[in-house]
Amino acid sequence: MEEQDKYRLLLVDDDVDLLRLLSIRLSAAGYQVTVAESGEQALGLLPVVRPHLVLSDMRMEGMDGMALFDAIRKNHSALPVIIMTAHGSIPDAVDATRRGVFGFLAKPLDKQDLLQEIKRALSMCGPPLDVEAGAAGEDQWRREIITQSPAMLDLLSKAKLAAESGSAVLIRGESGSGKEMLARAIHWASNRSAEPFVAVNCGAIPDTLLESELFGHSKGAFTGAVKDYPGLFRSAQGGTLFLDEIGDMPLALQVKLLRVLQEKRMRPVGSVESIDIDVRIVSATHRQLESEIADGNFREDLYYRLNVVSLELPNLAGRREDIPLLAQHFLQELVDRSGKKVSGFAPEAMELLLAAAWPGNVRQLYNVVEQAVALSTSPVIPEELVSNAIKESREHILPFSEARREFEQQYLVRLMQITEGNVSHAARIAGRNRTEFYKLLGRHHIVPALFKS
Predict the structure, then answer these.
(1) CATH number listed for the domain at residues 400-451
(2) Residue 304: how many CB atoms within 10 A of its CB?
(3) What's the number of CA atoms in the CB half-sphere (13 Å) around residue 11?
(4) What is the pLDDT of residue 407?
(5) So what's the architecture of 316-393 in CATH?
(6) Please, which residues bridge with residue 240 across strands?
(7) Which one of 66, 357, 362, 447 is most buried, counting C-beta atoms within 10 A?
(8) What digits encode the pLDDT tens for the residues 306-358?
(9) Residue 257's pLDDT band (boundaries 50, 70, 90)?
(10) Where is the Response regulatory domain (predicted)?
């Protein structure tokens, strides 16, 4: 079966003879064709046919082509629309493309031009897989993952089996490729879905704090421990604990983690009592753990404990058919939040998105779309804005709140190291009173006792 056989086209024209001719021509080219003799009829057919492309006449009785386009855009913002007209003019074409119409063809239609424009429009919306299935009840577990990529769909089928097995899962993939999102989907597909999902980035927390963060500490265990802190293992009790960037975990803590996984018991910092735990572990890394084991940076026994099921998450460049879907989804999300009147991307802008290298993966794509939406002054995002956003996204700048939190944590850890855990001394250096300084330490789960020599 030809690939075109999977694509569904909706043709709209009040000229019945032309409609029949176009239907025969496009069916012969391998497309599944449905026809409508009015804009109103086309709107009624949309939820039934679920076309991948709409080809509509401009001038029709009742609802004309642009009115039909506006109605389609309200509920199907990613659906490309090509307008045909025997009354074409440059102003009409410019206005239509500014409003988000994909293409503009003048009658009488040239067969090759028609087929080429249809092919170009369909290439922007990826292969014709029914992504609507992702919203179906049985697929709610992967509701956050927007894809129509065969590679991703194959990975998701493996993830579903892994989730149902209850085994530990190791997700491999580049930074920004969506490892935490896949981990959350595995949690939702498992029999632990009603219990907590807790995530921690092992590379984002200083080594001296990670043990307390994972296993907790008891009240009075050290100066400043004014109350018990349960730790992330206990917070995830009965559910799933996601250990992101597990390859960055220090060796000393790897030993303690292995013991906890083997014994299913843990002891908070400063406590003499062990606590039973029931947690499913999903871990992730962008590192080659086999090389880390060979270099002595990662324990082989822990590796086998975590790597019961291994899932390789493709980078964005390996699933380019998802770029139009993701870009339009992010755009709609940002528009809903900001209220800006932006409806889509110019074809040239989408071509740029499809061709980009995306070293930062899905996270970088979101940043590019966010900047383009913020700076756009027209309903359709032009090529230039996307080009500039891609260039600037190579130097990623953290949001202010995240940068401030990161600075505070690093600053406090540095103070604790300098003063060897002496809170009074550290508070004086920071120019804060002890009470306020203890609150800062508590906010970042920093344990002074861990810094004492």
Answers:
(1) 1.10.10
(2) 11
(3) 22
(4) 84
(5) Orthogonal Bundle (1.10)
(6) 197, 280
(7) 447
(8) 999 999 999 999 999 899 889 989 998 998 888 888 888 988 899 899 989 99
(9) very high
(10) 8-122
Task: Give the number of residues written for the chain.
Answer: 453
The one-letter amino acid code at 370 reads E
Per-residue tokens: 358: 């995306």
60-69 contacts: CB < 8 A, separation 24 or more? Answer: 60/12, 60/13, 60/14, 61/14, 62/38, 63/38, 63/39, 64/39, 65/12, 65/39, 66/96, 66/99, 66/101, 67/39, 68/12, 68/39, 68/42, 68/43, 69/96, 69/99, 69/100, 69/101
Entry pTM: 0.70
CATH of span 3-123: 3.40.50.2300
Amino acid type, 434: R
Domain with CATH 3.40.50.2300 in the chain: 3-123
- In the chain, ranges of CATH 3.40.50.300 domains: 138-312
Residue 312, amino acid: E
Which one, of 16, 72, 17, 18, lies nearest residue 40 by Cα?
72
| Amino acid present at 298 | F
Residue 62 · residue 39 · CB < 8 Å: yes
